[in-house]
Amino acid sequence: MLTTRGRRTVALGLVAGLAGRILGVPELFGLAAAAVIVALAALVQVRLSKATVTLGARALPPVVDAGEPATLELTIEGSSVAGFLAAPVVLVTDRSQGSGLSQPAKVVIPRLARGERASARFALGTLRRGVIVAGGYEATLTDPLGLARRRLTSSRAAHCLVLARVEPLTTVLPRGLGWLATESTTSAAERLVSGSSMLRRYVQGDDLRLVHWRTTARVGGLMVREGGDREDPERAGVTVLLDTGDDTTPPELLDRAVEVASSVLSAAAAASSGGACGGYRLATTTGLDSGARQGYADLRDSLIALARVSASLTGARDRLGAALERLGQPDRDDVLVIVGAFGGSEPDPGLLEEAASAYSAVVLVLVGAAADGRRGCRPVRSLGGVLTVPLPDGRSLAEAWDTEIGHDEAGELSDLHEVAGAMGAAGATDR
Q1: Closest Cα to residue 294, out of 275, 311, 312, 307?
Q2: CA distances from residue 296 to 173, 268, 293, 365 in whole angstroms, order as listed
């Protein structure tokens, strides 16, 4: 087919021929004939060319962390029977395949010998999480003057998945969990009978990280876990519930909530790998549920799932209540972390109270909350045992989490040693 330049050439030739007839100038007839003949010759040359090419496109790497470099690589291989393609191959964006925001609309590939391969690359924007669809390209062959072109082949759109940013957190479990949290729905006696958790008195030399604080507070003496509960892959020690908002939620607010959920999950994976807690679980108000996970092996799958989530279509109470219902009742010492793109509003206190009665602790991260004088930047502990972490725009998650939730492990272990020493001394005195 004729290109825009080719059509203009033919149009100018016809105008020149018409002007020559009106004005009686023979030279204009010759100019008109030359323009039409050149355009038709270019069209014939392109149409009769037997050149073919193979075109491919791929994203490198296909999955990338936000802010890390990624590129779209186009490869083209010539297979002209004449030895060389008559002219450079032009790659034009195929809009029907989708298009990236920053990809070039046209890429010119120099002449290719038979079997010769060329490639072109350009960077993809990876500042935001989600799927980047880099549009496919259409390879076209043109004549040297650019008057005619013929479509050779096209490539499919390439996809690059950008994972949300992850901020490193020093801990995932709330400080003083055993002293501040409410009682779980399954008592220590029931867990002893079921075998899901074995508790016994502390003896000198036990790992103080195994202290079960809630039972310790009840019986007045240090109680530690025994058995395989801490390594049980079915034990979801930390559950992260992401409220994805609705169609009125600003995209940047949802992206920030996904970053928070990804960061908490990464901290939970690190804690489970080190034995500081059991497994972890990811759930969203859109129905996603990863089930119990353990260590770093399954973390990537959870982060990939988070990178793809979108807003919900239901109301705030309905979607959060339904998600909590789908989680079911925990039968172990689970911590529930609710991350929400709530903006200036907070979830229904009744739902939080119900959740706090079932979990060891509930942490509520309010993404986009205003840091006003009423709440400030301190955790709010309601009667239901909910720890509230306001995360206004511009506030670092790591700083907010460490301030509201984190703890000084070295200081706690020192305190534990002091308590254990005092109890050992008291026991020796009694004997």
Answers
A1: 275
A2: 17, 9, 9, 23
CA 17-20-22 angle, 5° bins: 110
How far is 91 from 94, CA to CA, in rounded Å?
A: 9
Strands 137-142 and 89-93: antiparallel
What is the distance of C-alpha 243 from the center of its chain? 15
* CA 306 – CA 128 distance, rounded (Å): 13
What proportion of the chain, given as a percentage, has pLDDT over 70?
71
- Where is mean pLDDT largest: 197-201, 229-233, 352-356, 413-417? 352-356
Give bridge partners of residue 158 from the DSSP assignment. Answer: 134
> Residue 187, CB half-sphere, CA atoms under 13 Å: how many?
4
The tokens of 224 are what? 């530690």
Alpha helices by DSSP H, 49-203: 177-180, 188-194
Q: How far is CA 226 from CA 82, 197, 309, in A?
A: 78, 7, 39
Contact 62, 160 (CB under 8 A): yes
Measured CA to CA, the distance from residue 166 to residue 68 in angstroms comes to: 12
* Residue 228 C-alpha from the chain's centroid: 33
- Which of 214, 212, 124, 209 minimizes the C-alpha distance to 162? 124
Cα–Cα nearest to 240, from 254, 266, 263, 261: 261
Q: What are the phi and psi torsion angles at 307 (to 5°)?
A: -65, -20
Span 183-206, average pLDDT: 50
CA torsion sign for 389, 391, 392, 397 is: positive
What average pLDDT does this structure show over 110-127? 81
Among 220, 321, 19, 262, CA closest to 130 = 262
Backbone dihedral region for residue 205 (phi beyond 0: left; psi -120 to 50: alpha; all else: beta) = left
In 3-state terms, what secondary structure has residue 51? coil
Name the one residue in this structure whose structure tokens are 């690359």.
121
Work out the burial of residue 382: count CB atoms within 10 Å of its CB; fewer than 13 is exposed, 13-18 middle, 19 or more buried.
middle
Beta strands in 297-392 (DSSP E): 335-340, 361-367, 386-391
Place of tokens 């920030």: 256
E-strand ranges in 53-105 read: 53-60, 63-65, 71-78, 89-93
Predicted confidence at residue 385, as pLDDT, reads 62
